[in-house]
Protein backbone atom coordinates (compact mmCIF):
# COMPACT_ATOMS: atom_id res chain seq x y z
CA UNK A 1 0.00 0.00 0.00
CA UNK A 2 1.44 3.39 -0.90
CA UNK A 3 2.06 6.11 1.65
CA UNK A 4 -1.38 7.63 1.23
CA UNK A 5 -3.57 4.94 -0.25
CA UNK A 6 -7.16 5.35 0.76
CA UNK A 7 -7.04 4.61 4.47
CA UNK A 8 -8.96 5.52 7.62
CA UNK A 9 -8.06 8.93 9.06
CA UNK A 10 -7.05 7.26 12.35
CA UNK A 11 -4.31 5.08 10.83
CA UNK A 12 -1.64 7.52 12.04
CA UNK A 13 -0.83 9.06 8.66
CA UNK A 14 -2.84 12.24 9.20
CA UNK A 15 -1.47 14.53 11.95
CA UNK A 16 1.09 11.88 12.96
CA UNK A 17 2.74 11.74 16.35
CA UNK A 18 6.04 10.77 14.74
CA UNK A 19 7.56 10.53 11.24
CA UNK A 20 6.48 7.55 9.14
CA UNK A 21 9.11 5.51 7.29
CA UNK A 22 8.54 5.01 3.59
CA UNK A 23 10.39 3.72 0.55
CA UNK A 24 10.36 4.46 -3.13
CA UNK A 25 12.04 2.82 -6.09
CA UNK A 26 13.61 4.43 -9.17
CA UNK A 27 13.37 1.64 -11.74
CA UNK A 28 15.60 2.37 -14.71
CA UNK A 29 15.34 0.74 -18.13
CA UNK A 30 17.05 1.83 -21.35
CA UNK A 31 17.94 5.27 -19.98
CA UNK A 32 14.43 6.00 -18.71
CA UNK A 33 12.86 5.86 -15.25
CA UNK A 34 9.46 4.47 -14.31
CA UNK A 35 7.10 7.10 -12.89
CA UNK A 36 3.64 6.68 -11.42
CA UNK A 37 0.99 9.38 -11.17
CA UNK A 38 -0.43 9.46 -7.64
CA UNK A 39 -4.07 8.43 -7.28
CA UNK A 40 -4.43 9.43 -3.62
CA UNK A 41 -3.96 12.56 -1.54
CA UNK A 42 -1.76 14.20 -0.63
CA UNK A 43 -0.46 15.31 -4.02
CA UNK A 44 -3.00 13.44 -6.13
CA UNK A 45 -2.09 13.67 -9.82
CA UNK A 46 1.61 14.44 -9.41
CA UNK A 47 4.29 12.15 -10.80
CA UNK A 48 6.52 10.22 -8.43
CA UNK A 49 8.26 6.91 -7.92
CA UNK A 50 6.33 3.81 -6.90
CA UNK A 51 6.55 3.39 -3.14
CA UNK A 52 4.84 3.37 0.21
CA UNK A 53 5.24 2.63 3.89
CA UNK A 54 7.61 0.04 5.33
CA UNK A 55 5.87 -2.76 7.22
CA UNK A 56 7.13 -3.99 10.59
CA UNK A 57 9.89 -6.58 10.15
CA UNK A 58 10.52 -5.59 6.53
CA UNK A 59 13.90 -4.43 5.24
CA UNK A 60 13.91 -1.20 3.20
CA UNK A 61 14.88 -2.82 -0.12
CA UNK A 62 12.29 -5.59 0.38
CA UNK A 63 9.62 -2.97 1.02
CA UNK A 64 10.59 -1.05 -2.13
CA UNK A 65 10.33 -4.19 -4.30
CA UNK A 66 7.01 -5.16 -2.69
CA UNK A 67 5.59 -1.68 -3.27
CA UNK A 68 6.73 -1.74 -6.91
CA UNK A 69 4.92 -5.01 -7.53
CA UNK A 70 1.78 -3.94 -5.63
CA UNK A 71 1.55 -0.52 -7.23
CA UNK A 72 2.38 -1.20 -10.90
CA UNK A 73 2.98 -4.96 -11.17
CA UNK A 74 6.64 -4.77 -12.24
CA UNK A 75 9.71 -6.52 -10.90
CA UNK A 76 13.21 -5.09 -10.57
CA UNK A 77 16.62 -5.64 -9.00
CA UNK A 78 17.79 -3.12 -6.41
CA UNK A 79 21.26 -1.68 -7.05
CA UNK A 80 23.19 -0.98 -3.84
CA UNK A 81 21.93 0.52 -0.59
CA UNK A 82 19.19 3.13 -0.39
CA UNK A 83 19.77 6.60 -1.83
CA UNK A 84 19.66 9.89 0.10
CA UNK A 85 16.40 10.03 2.10
CA UNK A 86 13.75 12.65 1.36
CA UNK A 87 11.65 14.23 4.09
CA UNK A 88 8.09 15.24 3.29
CA UNK A 89 6.55 17.63 5.83
CA UNK A 90 3.17 19.16 5.07
CA UNK A 91 1.29 21.52 7.36
CA UNK A 92 -2.33 22.60 7.43
CA UNK A 93 -3.48 26.24 7.28
CA UNK A 94 -3.04 26.54 11.07
CA UNK A 95 0.56 25.34 10.90
CA UNK A 96 -0.18 21.92 12.41
CA UNK A 97 1.87 19.03 11.03
CA UNK A 98 -0.48 17.19 8.66
CA UNK A 99 1.99 14.67 7.17
CA UNK A 100 5.58 13.69 7.96
CA UNK A 101 7.27 10.99 5.92
CA UNK A 102 10.92 10.01 5.69
CA UNK A 103 11.28 8.29 2.33
CA UNK A 104 14.22 5.99 1.59
CA UNK A 105 14.53 5.77 -2.21
CA UNK A 106 16.28 2.92 -4.02
CA UNK A 107 17.84 2.65 -7.48
CA UNK A 108 16.89 -0.45 -9.43
CA UNK A 109 17.08 -2.06 -12.83
CA UNK A 110 13.86 -3.25 -14.46
CA UNK A 111 13.71 -7.04 -14.80
CA UNK A 112 10.20 -8.15 -15.73
CA UNK A 113 6.53 -7.32 -16.29
CA UNK A 114 5.45 -4.16 -18.10
CA UNK A 115 4.09 -1.67 -15.56
CA UNK A 116 0.39 -0.88 -15.47
CA UNK A 117 -1.54 1.49 -13.22
CA UNK A 118 -3.32 -0.12 -10.29
CA UNK A 119 -5.58 1.39 -7.61
CA UNK A 120 -2.71 3.55 -6.30
CA UNK A 121 -1.62 5.00 -9.67
CA UNK A 122 -3.67 7.01 -12.16
CA UNK A 123 -1.07 6.36 -14.87
CA UNK A 124 2.48 5.10 -15.37
CA UNK A 125 5.15 6.19 -17.83
CA UNK A 126 8.80 5.72 -18.68
CA UNK A 127 10.57 9.11 -18.79
CA UNK A 128 14.03 10.42 -19.64
CA UNK A 129 15.57 12.54 -16.91
CA UNK A 130 15.24 15.73 -18.98
CA UNK A 131 11.47 15.13 -19.36
CA UNK A 132 10.89 15.09 -15.60
CA UNK A 133 11.59 18.83 -15.20
CA UNK A 134 8.41 19.56 -17.17
CA UNK A 135 6.19 17.43 -14.94
CA UNK A 136 4.46 18.16 -11.64
CA UNK A 137 6.39 15.91 -9.22
CA UNK A 138 6.77 15.16 -5.55
CA UNK A 139 9.35 17.25 -3.65
CA UNK A 140 12.99 16.30 -4.25
CA UNK A 141 12.22 13.85 -7.06
CA UNK A 142 14.70 15.24 -9.61
CA UNK A 143 17.61 15.01 -7.14
CA UNK A 144 16.66 11.44 -6.26
CA UNK A 145 16.51 10.55 -9.96
CA UNK A 146 19.93 12.06 -10.67
CA UNK A 147 21.38 10.00 -7.82
CA UNK A 148 19.62 6.84 -9.06
CA UNK A 149 20.88 7.26 -12.63
CA UNK A 150 24.39 7.81 -11.29
CA UNK A 151 24.14 4.68 -9.10
CA UNK A 152 22.89 2.55 -11.99
CA UNK A 153 25.51 3.84 -14.48
CA UNK A 154 28.26 3.08 -11.96
CA UNK A 155 26.89 -0.42 -11.48
CA UNK A 156 26.86 -1.15 -15.23
CA UNK A 157 30.53 -0.16 -15.65
CA UNK A 158 31.81 -1.92 -12.54
UniProtKB/TrEMBL annotation:
Entry similarity comment: Belongs to the Nudix hydrolase family.
Pfam family, one: NUDIX
Nudix hydrolase domain sequence ranges: 18-149
Entries under CDD domains matching the protein: NUDIX_ADPRase
Keywords: Hydrolase
Keyword Transferase: no
Cofactor(s), by name: Mg(2+)
GO MF term set: hydrolase activity
Protein name: ADP-ribose pyrophosphatase YjhB, NUDIX family
PANTHER family registered for this protein in UniProt: GDP-MANNOSE MANNOSYL HYDROLASE (PTHR43046), MUTT_NUDIX FAMILY PROTEIN (PTHR43046:SF14)
Amino acid sequence: MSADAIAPADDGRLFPGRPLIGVSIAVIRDGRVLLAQRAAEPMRGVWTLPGGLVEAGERLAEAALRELEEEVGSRAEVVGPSLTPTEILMRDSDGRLRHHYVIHPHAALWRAVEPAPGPEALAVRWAHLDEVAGLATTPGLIDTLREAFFRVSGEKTA
